[in-house]
Design a protein that fits this description.
The chain is mainly beta. It is 6% helix and 45% strand.
C-alpha cells in the first residue's frame, strides 16, 4: 500500500504527432532517355516502323535475331516487336514515381515525485513511418527505374525508466533502464510482379528494372540497456562514477538476389533477351537470415575538482568495450583460412582518460580547455557484412550462367532447384589485426563578456582519429602489380571516336607513370590459387581535423537578439581511409569527404514589445520574427576516369573486391575506374551550400492558460540551388576518357593510356541533383494549441 498520492506530485504527459507528405521521386538517366530506334538498328539508312508494344518486357523467342544491313534492317518482325517492347519498358520507367513520407508518433510519459528523495520517470515512444517508393531517400536517381524503386517502412518502440534516488545530500543515484525495438522493412514497389527478377541494362548507362535485390528485407534490432550513475560530493570534489550495460540482438532477413538477375551488355542484347547471348544470369541461394547478439559494457569515473574559486579541473577515466560472437569458420580451405574467417578480435582494454579545465582570470572572462581520448564502437552492420560471406554454401551460394548457353534459364524464369549452387570462392572476414577506432580530441576557448548583452567566444579545436575503417576491404589474395601504366594528358582533339585513333601530337610529352592496376592484370592467388578474393575489413586510416572559430552573441536592443559564428577548418584523411591502390595506402593523403573549409552562421530573433494603447498592444505585440542563415563552403570530390577502351577497370585495385564491408569513398562509386592520375583524392570542391530560413509567428491568448500560436516558415527563402556533391553523387566526376591500343586491354604488362578530357553534354563537373537536406524553397504553416 503506497498510501495516498499527492496530486501535485504525479504528472502524466501525452504527445501525438503525425505527418503526411507527398514527395515524388524522379528517375533521370540521360543515356537511357536518348535510346531510340537507331540504337537497335545501328547504321541503318532507314528505320522500320515499329509495331505497338504487346508486352511489358521483351519476350524470349529464338527467332528474334537482329536483322542485318543486307536486308536494310527490315524483314524480321519478331525482332522489331522485341525492340518496341524494349523501348517501351525503358522509357516508361523514366520520369516521376509517386513517393510518400507518412509518419505517426506518440509519446506518453509518467513523472512521479514519490517523496523528497525519490523521483521516477517512465516514458514510451512509438513511431510508425510509411514511405511507398521511399527506400531511396535522395532525389533524383539515375540507376533504378520507376518500377524498381521499393517501399520503405519503419516501426519503432522504445521505453525508458529513470529513477533518481537521493541517499544523502551528498550522494545521489541515477538509475536508467531502457528497451528499444527497431524494425526496418523493405518491400517491392508493387508496380511489377514481386517474384519478377531484376533486369540490368549496362549500356549506355547502368539501369535496373524489375525487383532489385534490396527490395525485400526485414532488419529487426532489439536492445536492452541498464546503467547506474552515482554522484558523490565531498569537499571540493564532485565525483561521478557508474556502469552501463547494453545487449543488442539483430535479426536480418535479406532476400538479396534469390529471385535472380538478368544482365544485358547493351540495348540490342536486351531486345533479344538471351536468344543470342549478350548477357548473363545470376541467382543466389543459402540462408537469408543472419542473427547475432553482442553486449556492450562501460565503466567510468570523473572528478570535478574546485581547485580555487577561479579554477575548476575535470579528471576522468572511461573503459568500454563490445563483445562480438565468433563467426562460423570456413574449414574448406585449410587452417589458415579457417582462422581468418572464424575469429573476431575482441579487445577489452579501452582505457580512455580525459582532462578539462575552466579558469576565470577576470569576472567577465573565462578560459576553457581540455583533451580526451574517445573510443568508437564497431557498427553491427560492418560486423555482419564482414563475416556473412565466409564461402560456405549453407550461408551464401550462387550460380552464374551466360545467356544463350545450355544451362541458362529462359527469360524471365529462375531456378527452383538450387542444390547445385556453389559457395563463393571469394571470402570476407575481419582482419585479425583489426583495431577499434579512437579519437584524441582537444579544445581551447576564451569567452569574454563586454557588457550584459554582448559576449564573444574565440576558440580552436583539434582532433586526431586513429584506426579508421577503410572504405573498402583489403584483398589478401590479390597479386601485386608487376607492370606500369603511362598516362599522357591530351586535348579534346586528340581522339577520333569514329576511327578509334589517338594522335599523340595533341597530347603532352611527359608521362605520369603508375602501377598497372588494370583489373585484367591483377590476378588472385597470392595466398591460395584456388580462391578468389580474401577481403578483410581493415582499420589503418588516420584523420586530422583543425579548426578556429569565433562566435559573437549580442542583444542588439530590447526584443532583438543576434548570434554570428564563423569557423575555418581543415579535415584531412591519411593512410587508406579511402584507397584505390591497396599496395600503397600512403598515397591517400587527401581532404576528407566531410571537409568544409568555411562556415558562417547567423541567427536572429526579434520579439517586439510596444507600450501603446490597448489596440496597439493587441495588434503589434506577441509577434516573433526569427531567421537562421547558413553559408558553407562546398564539399570535395574526386576526378575519376571513365571506362577504358579495352573494357577493363583502370587505376583501381578495389574493383576486384566483392564484399560490402563498407560503402563509401572511391570503392563506393558505382562503375568506378579509379581516380584521375593527374589529381589526388578529393582535390575538387563543389559549390557552396547557402540557406536562409525565416519564421514569422504570432501568439494569441484565447483564455486564461489557453494559447494559440500561428506560424509561417520559409526554408531556403531565396531558393538557392544547393547541390549535394560528395561520395560520388550530385556531379559528373568523370574527368578523362582513357584511350589507346593497350589501355585497359587486360593483357599488356606495360600499358599506355591517353587521357582525353570528358567534354560535351554531361561533361566533367556538370551538376546533377539537389541535396535533399537543402531543398528548393519550401513554405510551411502551423497551428499550435497549448492549455
Amino acid at each position: 500500500d503506497l498510501g495516498p498520492i499527492e496530486s501535485n506530485k504525479l504528472f502524466y504527459y501525452f504527445d501525438y504527432e503525425q505527418q503526411r507528405e507527398k514527395d515524388p521521386i524522379s528517375v533521370i538517366n540521360n543515356g537511357m532517355q536518348s535510346l531510340n530506334e537507331a540504337s537497335f538498328f545501328p547504321g541503318a539508312a532507314s528505320l522500320p516502323q515499329l509495331p505497338t508494344p504487346d508486352s511489358i518486357f521483351p519476350v524470349y523467342n529464338a527467332g528474334s535475331q537482329k536483322p542485318s544491313a543486307a536486308n536494310g534492317f527490315q524483314g524480321n518482325a519478331i525482332y522489331q516487336q522485341q525492340v518496341a517492347n524494349a523501348l517501351n519498358v525503358i522509357h516508361t520507367n523514366l520520369g516521376q514515381r509517386a513517393r510518400r513520407r507518412d509518419d505517426v508518433s506518440f509519446f506518453p510519459k509518467l513523472d512521479w515525485q514519490i517523496n523528497d528523495n525519490n523521483h521516477l520517470m517512465l516514458d514510451y515512444n512509438y513511431n510508425r513511418f510509411s514511405s511507398p517508393g521511399g527506400t531511396i531517400t535522395y532525389n533524383p536517381v539515375s540507376f533504378d527505374s520507376v518500377m524498381a524503386l521499393p517501399n520503405n517502412y519503419v516501426h519503432d518502440h522504445s521505453a525508458n525508466l529513470n529513477w533518481r534516488a537521493v541517499f544523502t545530500p551528498t550522494f545521489i543515484s541515477q538509475l536508467h533502464i531502457s528497451y528499444l525495438r527497431d524494425d526496418q522493412i523493405e518491400r517491392p514497389s508493387g508496380l511489377i510482379n514481386p517474384a519478377f527478377p531484376s533486369v540490368l541494362l549496362f549500356s549506355p548507362q547502368f539501369f535496373e528494372m524489375g525487383n532489385p535485390g534490396y527490395s525485400r528485407g526485414h532488419s529487426k534490432e532489439y536492445e536492452w540497456e541498464a546503467g547506474d550513475s552515482f554522484t558523490w560530493v565531498t569537499g571540493a570534489n564532485t565525483v561521478q562514477f557508474g556502469v552501463d550495460v547494453n545487449r543488442t540482438h539483430v535479426t536480418d532477413f535479406n532476400w538479396g538476389n534469390f529471385r535472380g538477375t538478368y544482365a544485358f551488355f547493351n540495348p540490342i542484347a536486351f531486345a533479344q533477351v538471351g536468344s543470342q547471348g549478350g548477357g548473363f544470369f545470376t541467382q543466389s541461394a543459402g540462408n537469408p537470415y543472419f542473427l547475432f547478439t553482442y553486449p556492450y559494457y562501460a565503466f567510468y569515473v570523473q572528478d570535478k575538482f574546485q581547485a580555487t574559486s577561479r579554477l575548476t579541473l575535470n579528471l576522468g577515466l572511461r573503459e568500454d568495450f563490445q563483445v562480438f560472437p565468433q563467426p562460423t569458420a570456413d574449414t574448406l580451405y585449410g587452417s589458415a583460412i579457417a582462422h581468418w574467417t572464424g575469429q573476431f578480435p575482441n579487445h577489452f582494454s579501452h582505457w580512455a582518460p580525459r582532462f578539462g579545465f575552466a579558469y576565470q582570470p577576470m569576472h567577465n572572462t573565462v578560459i576553457r580547455g581540455g583533451i580526451g581520448m574517445f573510443y568508437d564502437i564497431l557498427d553491427g552492420i560492418n560486423y555482419e557484412n564482414s563475416v556473412v560471406g565466409n564461402g560456405l554454401p549453407s550461408q551464401q551460394a550462387s550460380t552464374f550462367q551466360f545467356l544463350g548457353g545450355a544451362n541458362a534459364p529462359t527469360f524471365p524464369n529462375t531456378y527452383s532447384n538450387v542444390s547445385s549452387f556453389a559457395g563463393s570462392s571469394s571470402l570476407s572476414f575481419i582482419d585479425p589485426g583489426f583495431q577499434p577506432p579512437y579519437v584524441l580530441e582537444s579544445s581551447l576557448e576564451i569567452q569574454h563578456q563586454f557588457s550584459e548583452g554582448t559576449s564573444l567566444k574565440i576558440g580552436t579545436m583539434w582532433t586526431h582519429a586513429v584506426h579508421l575503417i577503410s572504405s573498402t576491404a583489403y584483398d589478401y589474395n590479390l597479386m601485386p602489380p608487376t607492370g606500369t601504366t603511362s598516362y599522357y594528358t591530351c586535348s579534346s582533339a586528340a581522339y577520333n571516336a569514329n576511327t578509334g585513333v589517338v594522335n599523340p601530337a595533341d597530347c603532352g610529352s611527359t608521362a605520369i607513370v603508375t602501377p598497372n592496376l588494370d583489373s585484367g592484370m591483377l590476378p588472385e592467388g597470392r595466398v591460395n590459387p584456388n580462391l578468389g578474393s580474401l577481403d578483410a575489413l581493415i582499420s589503418p586510416g588516420l584523420n586530422q581535423y583543425n579548426s578556429a572559430y569565433a562566435e559573437l552573441q549580442r542583444r542588439v536592443s530590447h526584443g532583438l537578439t543576434a548570434l554570428i559564428s564563423y569557423t575555418y577548418a581543415k579535415n584531412m584523411d591519411f593512410n587508406g581511409v579511402d584507397f584505390w591502390n591497396q599496395f600503397n595506402l600512403a598515397q591517400t593523403h587527401s581532404p576528407s569527404l566531410l571537409d568544409q573549409r568555411q562556415r558562417l552562421s547567423v541567427a536572429m530573433v526579434y520579439q517586439p514589445e510596444f507600450h501603446l494603447g490597448h489596440t496597439g498592444r493587441t495588434m503589434l505585440n506577441h509577434w516573433n520574427l526569427s531567421t537562421v542563415m547558413q553559408f558553407n563552403s562546398g564539399r570535395p570530390y574526386t576526378g575519376m576516369l571513365n571506362g577504358a577502351s579495352g573494357g577493363d577497370t583502370l587505376n583501381d585495385s578495389a574493383v576486384n573486391q566483392s564484399t560490402n564491408n563498407t560503402a563509401a569513398g572511391i570503392a563506393g562509386n558505382a562503375g568506378s575506374e579509379g581516380p584521375s592520375p593527374t589529381q589526388g583524392l578529393n582535390t575538387f570542391y563543389g559549390p557552396s551550400i547557402d540557406e536562409v530560413d525565416l519564421e514569422l509567428a504570432r501568439t494569441f491568448a484565447l483564455s486564461e492558460g489557453v494559447h494559440a500560436r500561428f506560424s509561417a516558415e520559409a526554408f531556403n527563402l531565396f531558393n538557392h540551388p544547393n547541390f549535394f556533391v560528395s561520395t560520388g553523387s550530385g556531379i559528373v566526376q568523370t574527368q578523362y576518357n582513357p584511350v589507346g591500343p593497350t589501355c585497359g586491354d587486360g593483357a599488356t604488362v606495360n600499358q599506355t593510356c591517353y587521357l582525353v578530357p570528358n567534354t560535351g553534354a554531361g561533361a566533367f563537373q556538370t551538376l546533377q541533383s539537389i541535396d535533399q537536406l537543402n531543398p528548393p524553397r519550401v513554405f510551411q504553416f502551423g497551428l499550435t494549441l497549448s492549455f
